[in-house]
Amino acid sequence: MNQILSLTQAAELIGAEKSAVARWLRNGKLPGTQMPGPRGQWVVYRADVEAYIVAHADDPHHRTTPARDGYLSVTEAAKVLGLSRQAMYDRRRAGKLQMAFIDGRWYVPVSELGGN
Questions:
Q1: What's the confidence (pLDDT) of residue 64?
Q2: Which of 6, 67, 84, 92 has the most beta carbons within 10 angstroms of its beta carbon?
């Protein structure tokens, strides 16, 4: 079942400010539904947020960490996969996840997230 997220939860998962995520929702860059009523809260499917993260991995306007062409930080990739950072490193050691060591940090190729 696809988990429903609030605007706050979506912003935390993306690693962006709530105001930026609200703007992307209003502009249609991120799929979501604004609920009726005076507060008009947004709801977003987790799968849509994960797809957004992968699709914008190389876009510096949608990232809070330094851009690495075709890569996500381990923290970003862990959020997409719903895993802990430790689980990510465990998967790398077991040969189940490819990572690249760049400038003293581990990164996960976006291609590793394609099936999720």
A1: 46
A2: 92
